[in-house]
Amino acid sequence: MNDHHDNGRPPAGQDGDDRHDRHDDDPVRAPWHAPMRLALDEAVRAPATGDVPVGAVVLGPDGAVLGRGHNVREAVGDPTGHAELVALRAAARARGGWRLNGCTLVVTLEPCTMCAGAAVLARVDRVVYGARDVKAGAAGSLWDVVRDRRLNHRPEVVNDVLAPECGRLLTDFFRGPNPPSATPTPADPTPAPGPDTPAPTAPTAARDTDFEPRPPVG
Ligand SMILES: [Zn+2]
Predict the structure, then answer these.
(1) How does pLDDT run across 168-186, given as a tens digit for each residue?
(2) How many Å lie between the centroid of ligand 1 and the Cα of residue 107?
(3) pLDDT in tens, 96-128
(4) How far is the CA of 14 from the centre of ligand 1 (A)?
(5) Distance from Cα 178 to the centre of ligand 1, integer Å
(6) Is 212 domain-assigned?
(7) What is the domain extent for residue 38?
(8) 84 is catalytic
């Protein structure tokens, strides 16, 4: 179903098996809990500048952290200031080059088209993400940029790693009582729920954002 690369650590898993969504001891996803917690540590730093709490780390082939980052779109006024790009750029600097073969991008929210494209261009072996983004996700939800068979390089994907924690951070942020730089926008009253997930009980809009995370499950 997709390319497999076994030169990374921790051991690789497979994507698309929703049966494991709610099991913390899932052998496919459990090895990625620790790096996802590092990404979560990054994510919680974003709201200080009014940025959506998404965090990312890039692991080298040996599992060492090469780069990390969180959303800085508001902080630096950069439409490309997504956590993944910040982390990928840092990893490239640490490695002394743009090729990130053997590396793993770990991010708390499913990458958008830009970041999924960047992961392909960086030639990472693997993309590991937490919460799905049913509105803009490009690693299996709305598109599947990373595993498009027309591309020569197709990173492996491991989804739903600590998804409830990752999603909760986002929903808490959007439900915040006084979010900075809030820009009221018409809310979509009926965001698409997952196949086994009830519709969200609160709108996630009410501010200018591209993100509409899948509500936490479990
Ligand atoms: Zn992005």
Answers:
(1) 999 999 998 655 554 443 3
(2) 10
(3) 999 999 999 999 999 999 999 999 999 999 999
(4) 22
(5) 24
(6) no
(7) 30-172
(8) yes
Amino acid occupying residue 214: R
- List Cα–Cα distances, 52 to 20, 74, 159, 183, in angstroms: 27, 9, 20, 13
Domain containing 101 — which CATH number?
3.40.140.10
User: Does any domain span residue 137?
Assistant: yes
Query: In which residue are the tokens 């006084």 written?
Result: 178
Distance from residue 49's CA to the centre of ligand 1 (Å): 17
Tell me which residues have their CB within 5 A of the ion that is ligand 1: 82, 112, 114-115
Separation of 21 CA from ligand 1 center, angstroms? 23
Helix or strand holding residue 106 (H, E): strand 104-109
Long-range CB pairs of 175-179 (<8 Å, 24+ gap) are: 175/202, 176/47, 179/47, 179/50, 179/206, 179/207
What is the number of structural domains in the chain? 1
| Total-model pTM | 0.75
Catalytic pick from 42, 74, 84, 110? 84
